[in-house]
Each structure stands twice: as structure tokens, then as C-alpha cells.
Specification:
single chain, alpha/beta, Rossmann fold, Dihydrodipicolinate Reductase, domain 2, Alpha-Beta Plaits, 3 domains, eleven-stranded mixed beta sheet, 14 helices, binds NADP nicotinamide-adenine-dinucleotide phosphate
């Protein structure tokens, strides 16, 4: 055992997560001390704006965050700022100064994780980031440890609570996205600038981190296909219900040929029989299929100060225990250069909604286009929208086909005089197709 008297901690950031961690360390002081073997001592708290009122001993606060990562008396730094700048430089300096780091920053780990993990390994330090994906849900550690003997044949995640909240309400209420988003912002479930969530960036960063954990190497984020939920219309939810599906923004990764993975983020039709279809509201979930464990799903609160603090404090306790045992924890497999396959090579079912002229031979022309592209149909719904203007709507569900064939079929459909518009298409995650 080391002769450590306390685990001296510096906070970088004291917002939703930082203040949650602070409260948890105070409320659960005895339990945390007991689990580490010595107490946690909060030495400094770095923030941007000193004039904000905070319920904390003012002498702990500083807006000089460099002074924290350069303070030789601090053992471990909690990076709870977010984003790349200044978080990246601060984490790097902390590691170079022989401090272990706990971070909740998915963007930093998705873009710079390999380099930072390498730095931590070189310094025989811990770099933990359980809170970066799925907030309070234990994901990184179980995938890294208990499931690590498996080949992960597919991993599917609902990784963004804001989007899941919006999609759940669109489904229940039949409302438009703009309406629900406005409400979500008023209720504090969506940021004033929702781009990161709604356009799928947040999900993409988290998927990149999970991919690195499940497959041992980090893919370049530019190799992950991304489509957000901003284009979704309420009609798709009506047809999803008729066809027996829910619509979820999913991050999906699976191994394909030549050691590559195909990783993608997009709104998806999910059959009601899939457990992830019933994950609603702000909840997150990760479902995976391992070759020996079979299907397994983790779910719970993916965000919020308290659940996220739970993951950060768990990581901090790990750092403390490792320090007590005089050594870092087992290295996280986080290499670099995992190759990604293009979305064009995806084999998937598809949902397609089009507007057509309500006239003879339309279906025959459309069927011909599908046939030429080897796209076969599993289900179809048709209705007349406007009998006077002779406008009809057709919805198709395809069997699995290649993305590039499906896209080519759309290109050809647009050329048909009888097709007025392509209203929507979504990928369908359904093994029955
Ligand atoms: N919120 C969640 O539910 C959640 C869940 C999982 C993971 N995370 C991750 O946790 C991290 C923190 O998120 P959060 O929601 O707690 O953010 P937040 O509420 O916006 O807090 C950010 C903190 O960082 C400080 N900060 C920001 N920019 C700074 C700068 N340039 N220099 C110095 N300090 C700066 C802010 O200082 P001021 O207080 O002075 O403004 C604030 O204390 C992020 O990586 C986020 O992705 C959050």
C-alpha cells in the first residue's frame, strides 16, 4: 500500500457535471473514502467566469486553469469543460505533468483519444472517460473488461437523449420536429443551439469512442456516415406505426471485410420486437451482439448532472484505488487507424415515401426501376392524396439491398415523369427483411 494521505483533485469546469461531481463527493464522502482507502481532497476548481455565483468555498475557484494542470500537489484532474479548446491542451499538460485524468468529453476522446491514451500509458497514468458515452450508464468498462473476449458482431446505440426525447414526442403526439424542439429547449432538454445533437455530431463522437473500445482502434471520425434528424417529418411516424416500427436516431457499427468496420449515424426504422425500440424519452441505450454473450443491452439515463457525476466519481475511485496499489489500471485498448467502409457498401432494408401522379402504369414504371437496381419489395402502402389534382402517395419497404443500388434507384425514380417527389427515405434495421 502507498502512504497516500489523500487523493488531491483539481476540477476543470464546474457546470452541470462539475457541480454534480462536487455534490456527490460531499454527500458520499464516507463511502468514497472507504472505497479508495483515503479521502478525496478538492484542491482547486477552474472555471471561466469568476463573477457567477456558486455554492462553494470561493477560495477554491480560479479562472487560471493552467495553474491547476501545473500544480505539483494535484494527483488527478477532472476535465469537465467539454469541446476541444482549451480542454485538449489542459488534458495534455496534466498528463505530461504526471497527473491522471478523468474526462466526460466525447468530442475530445473521439478526435484525440488515441494520442491522449498513448500519453497516459507512457506516463503510467490513468485516463478514464466512462462519462463520455451514455452519461451514468456503465458502458466503457463492461465492454472493455467483461465482454472483451467476444467478437462484437454489431453494436447499436441510442446515444443522444435530446434526439430520443424529440423523436419520442413526435411519435406520441404526431407533432412536427420544430414544435417539439422549441418545447424541448424551453424545458431544458435541448440546447439553444441544437446543431450538435440534432445533426448527429454528438452521437457520432460517442459512436467513435464505443467503436474504439469494442474494436481496439479509433476510426477517423470523417469515416463515420452521419445524418441527423432535422429532415424528419411527422408523416414518417404514421407510416412507421402502420408498418410496425419506431423511428430512432441510432449509431451503428459492425465489422465488415478486410478488418474494416462500417459505422453510421442516422434516423432508423427499428422493429417493435427489437429491445432498443422501447427506449424512450431522454434515456440512452446500447445494444450489442457478441459471438459468445449473444444479445445484451445497457440502458438508463444518458445525461444530467447526477447520473453523469456517478460515472465520473466511479472513474475517480478507480484512479484512487490504482494509486493505492501503486500502479495505473489496465490500459484501455485505444489504438489508431481503424479503417471504415463506405456507406455505399451497406446492406440494409429501406423505407421510401414518394408522391406520384395518380394515373395508370405508374406502379409498373416504378417496379421496373427497382428491378433494374435489384431492389425487391417487402411491403407497400398506397393512397390518393388529392383526387382532383390526381396526386397519390406510395410508401415502400424494401428487402435488404445495397445502399448504392437503392440510391441509384432513387436517382432513376426522380427521372420518371410520373414521380412528383421523393418525400423521404430511411434505413430499416430489421433482420427479417
Ligand atoms: N450535461 C450532461 O448531461 C453531460 C452528460 C455526459 C457528458 N457531459 C460532458 O461533460 C462535460 C461538461 O458538460 P456540462 O454539461 O457540465 O457543461 P457546462 O454546464 O456548460 O459546464 C462547463 C464548465 O466549463 C467551464 N468552461 C467552459 N469553457 C471554459 C474555458 N474556455 N475556460 C475555463 N472554463 C471553461 C464553464 O465555466 P463557467 O461555469 O464559468 O461558465 C463551466 O463551469 C462536457 O464534455 C459534456 O459533453 C455532459
Amino acid at each position: 500500500m502507498s502512504q497516500q494521505k489523500s487523493l488531491r483533485v483539481g476540477f476543470l469546469g464546474f457546470g452541470t457535471v462539475g457541480s454534480g461531481v462536487f455534490r456527490m463527493l460531499q454527500d458520499n464522502y464516507a463511502a468514497v473514502t472507504d472505497r479508495i482507502g483515503f479521502p478525496v481532497e478538492i484542491v482547486k476548481i477552474g472555471i471561466r467566469d469568476l463573477s457567477k455565483s456558486r455554492d462553494v468555498d470561493q477560495s477554491l475557484l480560479t479562472d487560471d486553469l493552467e495553474s491547476i494542470v501545473n500544480d505539483p500537489s494535484i494527483d488527478v484532474v477532472l476535465e469537465l469543460i467539454g469541446g476541444i479548446d482549451p480542454a485538449e491542451k489542459l488534458v495534455e499538460t496534466a498528463l505530461l505533468n504526471k497527473k491522471s485524468v478523468v474526462t466526460a468529453n466525447k468530442e475530445l476522446m473521439a478526435k484525440q483519444g488515441s494520442r491522449l491514451v498513448h500519453l497516459a500509458k507512457e506516463g503510467q497514468l490513468d485516463l478514464h472517460f466512462e462519462a463520455a458515452v451514455g452519461g451514468g450508464i456503465p458502458l466503457i468498462q463492461p465492454i472493455k473488461h467483461q465482454l472483451s473476449g467476444n467478437d462484437v458482431l454489431k453494436l447499436i446505440g441510442i446515444l443522444n437523449g435530446t434526439c430520443n426525447y424529440i423523436l419520442t414526442r413526435m411519435d406520441l403526439e404526431g407533432s412536427d420536429l420544430a414544435e417539439v424542439l422549441k418545447d424541448a429547449q424551453a424545458l431544458g432538454f435541448a440546447e439553444a443551439d441544437p446543431t450538435n445533437d440534432v445533426e448527429g455530431f454528438d452521437t457520432l463522437y460517442k459512436l467513435a469512442v464505443l467503436t474504439a473500445i469494442a474494436y481496439g482502434k479509433l476510426p477517423d471520425v470523417s469515416g463515420i456516415y452521419r445524418q441527423g434528424i432535422s429532415g424528419l417529418k411527422s408523416e414518417e411516424f404514421k407510416y412507421a406505426e402502420i408498418l410496425g416500427y419506431k423511428i430512432k436516431l441510432l449509431g451503428i457499427v459492425e465489422p465488415v471485410a478486410d478488418g474494416k468496420v462500417l459505422a453510421r449515424v442516422h434516423p432508423t426504422f427499428v422493429p417493435l420486437s427489437h429491445p432498443i425500440s422501447s427506449v424512450n424519452g431522454v434515456n440512452n441505450a446500447v445494444w450489442l451482439h457478441g459471438d459468445f454473450v449473444g444479445d445484451i443491452m445497457f440502458s438508463g439515463k444518458g445525461a444530467g448532472g447526477d447520473p453523469t457525476a456517478s460515472a465520473v466519481v466511479g472513474d475517480l475511485i478507480d484512479v484512487g484505488r490504482n494509486m493505492a496499489a501503486n500502479g495505473p489500471g489496465s490500459a484501455i485498448p485505444f489504438g489508431v487507424g481503424l479503417e471504415t467502409e463506405s456507406i455505399n457498401e451497406l446492406s440494409s432494408g429501406y423505407y421510401l415515401r414518394i408522391r406520384v401522379n395518380d394515373q395508370p402504369k405508374v406502379l409498373g414504371e416504378i417496379a421496373m426501376v427497382f428491378g433494374e437496381q435489384e431492389v425487391s419489395l417487402s411491403a407497400m402502402e398506397m393512397k390518393v392524396l388529392d383526387p382532383l389534382a390526381k396526386v397519390g402517395e406510395i410508401v415502400f419497404l424494401t428487402h435488404k439491398c445495397k445502399e448504392k443500388n437503392f440510391q441509384q434507384a432513387i436517382t432513376e425514380l426522380k427521372k420518371l415523369a410520373s414521380v412528383r417527389s421523393i418525400e423521404a427515405f430511411l434505413r430499416v434495421e430489421d433482420d427479417r427483411l
